[in-house]
Each structure stands twice: as structure tokens, then as C-alpha cells.
Design a protein that fits this description.
The chain is built from nine helices and 15 strands. α2 crosses α3. It is globular. The protein starts with a strand and ends with a strand. About 45% of the residues are buried. α6 links the parallel β11 and β12. The protein is α/β, with parallel strands linked by helices and about 325 residues long. It has two domains: about 150 residues, Alpha-Beta Complex (Quinone Oxidoreductase, Chain A, domain 1), CATH 3.90.180.10; about 150 residues, Rossmann fold, CATH 3.40.50.720. Strands 3, 4, 5, 6, 7, 14 and 15 form a seven-stranded mixed β-sheet that branches. Strands 10-9-8-11-12-13 form a six-stranded parallel β-sheet, sandwiched between helices. Bound molecules: NADP nicotinamide-adenine-dinucleotide phosphate (NAP). NADP nicotinamide-adenine-dinucleotide phosphate (NAP) binds next to α1, α2, α3 and α9.
């Protein structure tokens, strides 16, 4: 028997989630029945899509009240009644927000911890981080050498990887993030050419200074007002990749769309959205490339780790208040 501690949804957040919207519950788990595995979760990925599942009618579904919150995680198999996985294997997949997951073994991917540490399979090699940046930047739009690329939410997980992939492909990169420390992180750790502090600087003025010939590619994690400020400064033939709109997730029933979309027509530009799972049949091509750049030291992603399953709600709130740089994880 092992004791599982899980984070359940107590009430649907109105606006920004509060810790009181969640509760920790405990249960005992025994031997897995046929086809199931028991996983000891080592890291949980704190992702923006989790917020969208706390309400009703979101793109990623809705968590019933009283049920565990959704989360992707990595962990070690500690008991198995599934042919494809043995005790000691490391796996990644939908573990939910809990210390131990008793789930069908077929739901998990075995991961190779000799290529990279298990947590990297939620970061640079993970679906909601490295793979999202890879396909959102290199497939949804194409980045060419010499492009001026702007990335919003640049000091977060997807943004940090997107900035570095753009640099690897010969672009000039301007990151937008909240606060001077994050701007320093962008230029000193991530290798961006410039950073803009959207909380302390006039973003429009700074974009005009830093991209006098216009913006060729915009990788947008934030949406809202920043999208209009960029649209107003795009170059002819610009490409905009809508990865997400974290500024809007606390009020999905009243999303602010771009006012300046006519710039797309005026400048022969295009704007497209994507979901990473659309590219699932190409993950096998992307992972070795991402791992290769990691090994060469061209791609890094610092981790911000919150310790203890009870920190899960606070960590989720942190994603929206900007208290981390790089990949936000919880070790349950
Ligand atoms: N299309 C897909 O398939 C896909 C897959 C995965 C993720 N995504 C999207 O990728 C984006 C980034 O996700 P992530 O997991 O990497 O999170 P993250 O960037 O690590 O964390 C989110 C960051 O967003 C910034 N932020 C929050 N509210 C903001 C606001 N109102 N205005 C401006 N910035 C704000 C915060 O940084 P500051 O301190 O700079 O404000 C925060 O650190 C999200 O929009 C997510 O939905 C899309």
C-alpha cells in the first residue's frame, strides 16, 4: 500500500484562481489491476492549459468539482500489471496533480533518462514546452536567417525555448517579459539580443527603437494589448504564430481580440494559430534535434521548482503572476 496525496478542485475560480479553490485529499493505493501501472511522480509540469480546465467549456475539457486537477508529469514505475512497462522504468504522461498515479500503462511514454534527466521531458523535450516552441516557430511559421523575431512571455518555459530556437536559426531576437530581472535573464542567460520590460517600459516605443525596419516574426504567448502593439509594427510579409494568450485565460468568456488585424492585409502578413498535438506524428523528428542542441549547449532551460504537492495551487497561480523564470515545476 502507498499513500497518495492529490490536489482536487473544490470550487471553480472566478477570475484569478485562489488557493482556497483547491484541497488536498489522501487515499491508499494497492497493487495495480491488469493493464495498470503505479507511478511515483517525481515532477509535475505547471502549464497554462491547466487554468482553462478549471472552468466550464474550455478547449482542453473541464475538471469535475471534487476531481483531481489535470497535470502532465514524469515519474518512476513502482508496480506494473502492464506488459509494456516494468518496475524502475521512467515514464511521462498525464499523471494528474498527485504524488502517485494508478493509471492504464498504455497512457504513458517510456523515457530515456540517459539522454536527459527526467524533468527535461517536461521542459526542452516536453510536449507543452520544447515541442510547442519547436512546431510553433519552425512549422506554424518559418523563421529565416536575418529575421527580426519578437517573443512575448519570453522568460517563461515556451518563450525561453522559442527565443533560443530563433537564435539557432540565425534570427535577431527581442523578448518581452515582466521586470528588469527577466530582461537581464533574456539577454544574459537565454542569449536574446534585446529585452523589453512590459511592466516598466513603453513597449510600443521600445519595439520601434529595437525593430526600426519592422518585425518579421511574432511568437505570441500573451495576446491582449501586446498583440496590437506588435501588429502595428510588423514588416511586409510578417508571420505571427499564436501559441497562446495567457493574458486572457482568467476571463475566457470575454477574450480581447486584436483591434489592428487590418495590418495583416496592409502588409501582406499572415497570422496563424496552432496546437502542439497537431504535430504529434512529428515529435520523433523534433526530440533528437532538441536533445542535440541541448547537448551542444545551444539550448538550455533553467527550472524553477516548488517542493511539495501542497504547493501545486500556489505554483499554478505563480504562472499568472510571473514569479518564475524558465520551466515551472512541482516536485510532489
Ligand atoms: N499552442 C499550444 O499547443 C501550446 C502548448 C503549450 C503552451 N501554450 C501556451 O504557451 C504560453 C506559455 O506557456 P508556459 O507554460 O511556457 O508558461 P510560462 O511562459 O512559463 O509562464 C507564463 C508567463 O506568462 C507571463 N504572463 C502571465 N500573465 C501575463 C499577462 N497578463 N501579460 C503578459 N504576460 C503574462 C508571465 O511572465 P511575466 O512575468 O513576463 O509576466 C508568466 O511567467 C501560454 O500562453 C500557453 O497557453 C500553447
Amino acid at each position: 500500500m502507498v499513500t497518495n496525496r492529490k490536489v482536487v478542485l473544490k470550487s471553480r475560480p472566478q477570475g484569478r484562481p485562489k488557493e482556497s479553490d483547491f484541497a488536498i485529499e489522501t487515499e491508499q493505493l494497492g497493487e495495480p489491476p491488469p493493464g495498470m501501472v503505479l507511478i511515483e511522480v517525481s515532477h509535475l509540469s505547471i502549464d497554462a492549459f491547466i487554468r482553462t480546465t478549471l472552468g466550464e467549456g474550455g478547449h482542453h475539457g473541464s475538471v469535475p468539482l471534487g476531481s483531481p486537477c489535470v497535470a502532465l508529469g514524469v515519474g518512476k514505475v513502482i508496480a506494473s500489471a502492464f506488459e509494456g512497462l516494468a518496475v524502475g522504468d521512467w515514464v511521462s504522461g498525464a499523471t494528474l496533480a498527485q504524488t502517485h498515479a494508478m493509471m492504464p500503462g498504455a497512457m504513458y511514454q517510456k523515457i530515456d533518462d540517459t539522454i536527459a534527466p527526467p524533468s527535461a521531458y517536461l521542459g526542452v523535450l516536453g510536449m507543452t514546452t520544447g515541442l510547442t516552441a519547436y512546431f510553433g516557430l519552425l512549422s506554424a511559421v518559418n523563421v529565416d536567417e536575418g529575421d527580426t523575431v519578437v517573443v512575448s512571455g519570453a522568460a517563461g518555459a515556451v518563450g525561453s525555448v522559442a527565443c533560443q530556437l530563433a537564435k539557432i536559426h540565425g534570427a535577431r531576437v527581442i523578448g518581452i517579459a515582466g521586470g528588469r530581472d527577466k530582461v537581464r535573464y533574456l539577454t544574459d542567460t537565454i542569449g536574446a539580443d534585446a529585452g523589453i520590460d512590459y511592466k516598466g517600459e513603453d513597449v510600443g516605443t521600445r519595439l520601434t527603437e529595437l525593430a526600426p525596419n519592422g518585425i518579421d516574426v511574432y511568437f505570441d504567448n500573451v495576446g491582449g494589448e501586446l498583440l496590437d502593439l506588435v501588429l502595428d509594427r510588423i514588416a511586409s510579409g510578417a508571420r505571427i504564430s499564436i501559441c497562446g494568450a495567457i493574458s486572457q485565460y482568467d476571463h475566457l468568456d470575454d477574450v480581447r481580440g486584436p483591434k489592428l488585424y487590418l495590418r495583416l492585409a496592409e502588409r501582406n502578413a499572415r497570422m496563424c494559430g496552432f496546437t502542439v498535438d497537431h504535430y504529434a506524428n512529428r515529435f520523433g523528428e523534433a526530440i533528437p534535434r532538441l536533445a542535440g542542441w541541448m547537448k551542444e549547449g545551444k539550448l538550455k532551460l533553467p527550472e524553477h521548482v516548488e517542493r511539495g504537492i501542497e504547493r501545486f495551487p500556489a505554483a499554478l497561480i505563480k504562472l499568472f503572476t510571473g514569479g518564475h523564470m524558465g520551466k515551472l515545476l512541482v516536485t510532489p
